[in-house]
């Protein structure tokens, strides 16, 4: 990487980054508040009634008086604004509230499940990055060759394929037709979550999640590398008689990778959505599977916490990508 | 050139690294511990809190009630030292506690725990969902550390059967706020034969034998329950030998039993009815002739054979035929479409050109709602509509979620399910007494019949079993003369278990089924075969 050596430039860079972070954080607060309010309003207008979740099958033998009393005790009769105010008040004091569908404090639900989702998403991202870099570089290097044609065709096909179709296909192949991989849960039935167990159960969901995210990245790497190969410094390197491998990997690729970092940061929301589908299909006990439960049972506190978590993750992802580009590329100026 | 050829190799190597740890999964490698069991359940409990309905009927492995139901559905003392004793006026019951019982957390059980548990049910701020089952309970008091007294607002002969409610430590229900906030929901503390080791929500639950269980330590030392909600997936995994038992729809269970090695098919009768409500606010379903005719027009045995793989018994009233001491043979409806047609003709319902009857300007047409998540209800609704069509009644089907069904139950018919074999009089009272009209899902069609009300009231207040059974039979006759619903069938529940344990006892089941009931209702008394 070309790092600026001049100290004044570097100090300027540092200030630029600080301003960018401050500016983005300032924007994030109203965004998060609007999102939280939006979730509350959507949940309030949804046709689902949390009382069914509370009673379960008991609702069929419970009398109106018992049900009405439960509504009152749970605060379900209060207006949306009262509930929103109550939740926001709790949030201010560091209390995320109690999840109605999991019967646990929201913080416990998140603490139990978030690590598994992070593991899945990280592994999936790793798969996506490795595949897209290797395949994208190969395709650009031999533009128009059979690898390029294959990668482009497969990439465009996968773009239109929802992750759950991919997941069900993977199950059909690797669990039914050719049973080499476990397809459900974190471990075998009753087994302790050892590294070996979890690793084997992680393979299919992570690979499916990774591959589902790959098409955009592959096509992006390919096109930006093609652009970089036409640039002056690459032409110069070729003119100096450097081997093709060095030209592509040492001169063209770094330039092409900068926008890739930005794209990666902006793919985070997609990754989260993909994780929801993949976790549901593979019975992976992560936070994304809890999103579905929380939504179906109108679990206000959990739903809001999860939405905030996602919003923050997306904002942080975009910010990190921008900071990385700022640090890596001296030509970019910060937008702050 | 070389590099280009090298790339696919790199790609393959990268994938191989990712797939590194998995040459082949080690399913069923080595002999399983003979004293442990892996079950698959199609339904995962929302929580393990007795106040919210978990183990209400006493089949929980984690908790004990004061009484427990035996194979003949009779309450036997469990945490109670002896059978509960009623006062002469029937308005109070005294229960003495078994000495030396401890909870899983090591604390001793005494009267304060029993009082705290039942007071939590009665406490409106706890919003306990099981409260509807205790309308007769006024208060509970500790007479001394080993004796409690239950005070009732009216006599209730089968009160010992109500004492199956799991007892929890007093400190577990001390916290204010609704029951769903209690830690019990996910970290249960009981006196039961098993304690919870781990519950990974969404995937599995591990139970371990309680070595200090007051009934003696169970021989089956470890039970793992895997939650696999999809019936077909579960059936495939059972066929592959992954589990020691599961619950399956009857037809699937029959199919798998033939191909899975060492699995036994266990079919249990139940009091789990499926019925079609006939709302009284709807001019068609409120008509006595329509209700009588539909009850004779449905081919109940045909539905059981075609839709339930023969597993089930025809239902005409809420009292199941598996309870011979309570069922009234004269109150059963025959399958007789000719008689049904004659009844409608006599009542002035005339067939139109399209085959649908009408009386004046009112066509014989109503909407039937069902929850499409349950395939059995969907199939029964369709079968009912086609049988009704045959006698000129047009039934429009609508698949809806419960949220959408509930507000419309007063005017539109719905497929309902429920029932338990322990107290049919109470269940019938909830379902058909005018006192419960339009109260939640109890009597949603607002059926009213003075004779039915009177007979059910007398059955609930009966001083002894013989009188109670006689009043129940009188109720069934009164109901059959003026049916307020169309009962279709009592479902059979089908299970598969691996044949390597002794101690199985058949049992008649309630609406609830799954791995807490089924063959495993008394698993703490099972022994592994060596």
TrEMBL record, chain A:
It holds the Pfam family BPD_transp_1. It comes from Actinomycetospora corticicola. InterPro entries: MetI-like, MetI-like_sf. Keywords: Cell membrane, Membrane, Transmembrane, Transmembrane helix, Transport. It is found in: Cell membrane. One of its GO terms (cellular component) is plasma membrane. Belongs to the binding-protein-dependent transport system permease family. The chain crosses the membrane at residues 21-45, 118-141, 161-181, 202-219, 276-296, 302-328. This is Peptide/nickel transport system permease protein. GO terms for biological process: transmembrane transport. SUPFAM superfamilies: MetI-like. It is a multi-pass membrane protein. Residues 114-321 form the ABC transmembrane type-1 domain.
UniProtKB/TrEMBL annotation, chain B:
GO terms for biological process: peptide transport. GO terms for cellular component: ATP-binding cassette (ABC) transporter complex; periplasmic space. The lineage of its organism: Bacteria, Bacillati, Actinomycetota, Actinomycetes, Pseudonocardiales. This is Peptide/nickel transport system substrate-binding protein. GO terms for molecular function: peptide transmembrane transporter activity. InterPro entries: Peptide/Ni-bd (IPR030678), SBP_5 (IPR039424), SBP_5_dom (IPR000914). The keyword Protein transport does not apply. Residues 74-433 form the Solute-binding protein family domain. Residues 1-23 form the signal peptide. The keyword Signal applies. Belongs to the bacterial solute-binding protein 5 family. Pfam families: SBP_bac_5. Keywords: Signal, Transport. It comes from the Bacteria.
């Amino acid at each position: 990487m070309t790092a600026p050596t001049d100290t004044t430039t570097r100090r300027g860079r540092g200030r630029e980054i600080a301003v960018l972070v401050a500016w983005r954080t300032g924007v994030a607060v109203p965004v998060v508040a609007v999102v939280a309010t939006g979730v509350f309003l959507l949940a309030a207008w949804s046709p689902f009634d949390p009382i069914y979740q509370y009673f379960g099958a008991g609702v069929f033998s419970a009398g109106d008086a018992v049900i009405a009393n439960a509504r009152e005790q749970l605060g379900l009769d209060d207006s949306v604004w009262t509930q929103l105010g109550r939740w926001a008040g709790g949030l201010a004091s560091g209390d995320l509230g109690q999840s109605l569908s999991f019967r646990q404090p929201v913080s416990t639900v998140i603490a139990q499940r978030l690590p598994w989702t992070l593991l899945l998403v990280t592994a999936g991202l790793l798969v996506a990055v490795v595949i897209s870099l290797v395949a994208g570089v190969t395709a650009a290097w031999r533009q128009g060759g059979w690898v390029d044609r294959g990668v482009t065709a497969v990439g465009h096909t996968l773009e239109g394929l929802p992750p759950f179709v991919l997941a069900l296909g993977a199950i059909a192949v690797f669990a039914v037709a050719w049973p080499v991989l476990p397809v459900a849960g974190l471990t075998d039935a009753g087994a302790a979550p050892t590294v070996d167990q979890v690793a084997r159960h992680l393979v299919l969901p992570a690979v499916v999640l990774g591959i589902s995210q790959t098409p955009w990245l592959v096509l992006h790497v390919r096109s930006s590398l093609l652009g970089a190969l036409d640039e002056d410094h690459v032409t110069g390197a070729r003119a100096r008689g450097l081997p093709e491998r060095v030209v592509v990997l040492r001169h063209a690729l770094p330039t092409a990778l900068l926008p890739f970092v930005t794209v990666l940061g902006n793919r985070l929301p997609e990754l989260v959505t993909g994780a929801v589908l993949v976790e549901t299909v593979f019975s992976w006990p992560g936070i994304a599977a809890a999103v579905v439960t929380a939504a179906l049972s109108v679990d206000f506190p959990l739903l809001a916490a999860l939405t905030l978590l996602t919003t923050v993750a997306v904002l942080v992802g975009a910010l990190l990508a921008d900071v990385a580009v700022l640090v890596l590329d001296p030509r970019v100026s910060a937008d702050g | 050139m070389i590099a280009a050829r090298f790339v696919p190799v790199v790609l393959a190597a990268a994938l191989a690294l990712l797939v590194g740890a998995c040459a082949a999964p080690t399913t069923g490698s080595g002999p399983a511990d003979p004293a442990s069991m892996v079950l698959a359940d199609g339904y995962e409990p929302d929580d393990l809190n007795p106040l919210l309905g978990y183990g209400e009927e006493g089949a929980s492995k984690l908790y004990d009630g004061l009484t427990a139901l035996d194979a003949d559905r009779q309450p036997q003392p469990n945490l109670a030292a002896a059978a509960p004793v009623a006062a002469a006026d029937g308005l109070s019951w005294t229960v003495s506690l078994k000495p030396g019982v401890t909870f899983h957390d090591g604390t001793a059980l005494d009267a304060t725990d029993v009082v705290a548990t039942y007071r939590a049910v009665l406490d409106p701020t706890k919003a306990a969902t099981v409260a509807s089952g205790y309308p007769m309970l006024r208060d509970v008091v500790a007479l001394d550390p080993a004796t409690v007294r239950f005070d009732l607002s009216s006599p209730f002969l089968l009160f010992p059967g109500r004492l199956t409610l799991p007892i929890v430590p007093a400190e577990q229900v001390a916290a204010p706020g609704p029951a769903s906030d209690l830690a019990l929901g996910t970290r249960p503390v009981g006196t039961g034969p098993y304690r919870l080791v781990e519950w990974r929500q969404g995937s599995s639950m591990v139970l371990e034998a309680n070595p200090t269980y007051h009934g003696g330590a169970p021989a089956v030392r470890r039970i793992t329950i895997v939650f696999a909600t999809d019936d077909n997936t579960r059936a495939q995994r059972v066929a592959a030998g992954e589990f020691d038992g599961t619950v399956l729809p009857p037809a699937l269970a029959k199919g798998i039993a033939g191909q899975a090695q060492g699995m036994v098919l266990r079919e249990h009768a139940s009091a789990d009815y499926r019925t079609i409500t006939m709302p009284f606010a709807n001019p068609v379903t409120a008509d006595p002739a329509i209700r009588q005719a539909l009850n004779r027009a449905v081919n109940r045995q045909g539905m059981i054979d075609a839709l339930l793989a023969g597993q089930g018994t025809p239902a005409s009233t809420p009292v199941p035929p598996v309870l011979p001491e309570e069922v009234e043979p004269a109150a059963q409806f025959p399958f007789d479409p000719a008689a049904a047609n004659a009844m409608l003709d006599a009542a002035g319902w005339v067939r139109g050109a399209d085959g649908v009857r009408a009386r004046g300007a009112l066509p014989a047409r109503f909407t039937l709602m069902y929850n499409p998540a349950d395939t059995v209800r969907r199939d029964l609704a369709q079968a009912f509509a086609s049988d009704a069509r045959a006698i000129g009644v047009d039934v429009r089907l609508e698949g809806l979620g419960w949220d959408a069904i509930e507000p419309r139950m007063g005017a539109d018919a719905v497929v309902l399910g429920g029932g338990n074999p322990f107290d049919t009089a109470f269940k019938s009272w909830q379902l058909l007494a005018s006192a419960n009209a339009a109260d939640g899902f109890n009597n949603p069609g607002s059926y009213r019949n003075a004779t039915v009300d009177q007979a059910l009231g007398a059955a609930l207040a009966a001083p002894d079993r013989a009188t109670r059974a006689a009043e129940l039979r009188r109720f069934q006759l009164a109901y059959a003369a003026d049916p307020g619903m169309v009962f279709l069938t009592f479902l059979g529940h089908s299970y598969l278990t691996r044949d390597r344990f002794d101690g199985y006892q058949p049992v008649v089941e309630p609406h609830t089924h799954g791995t807490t009931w089924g063959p495993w209702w008394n698993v703490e008394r099972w022994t592994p075969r060596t």
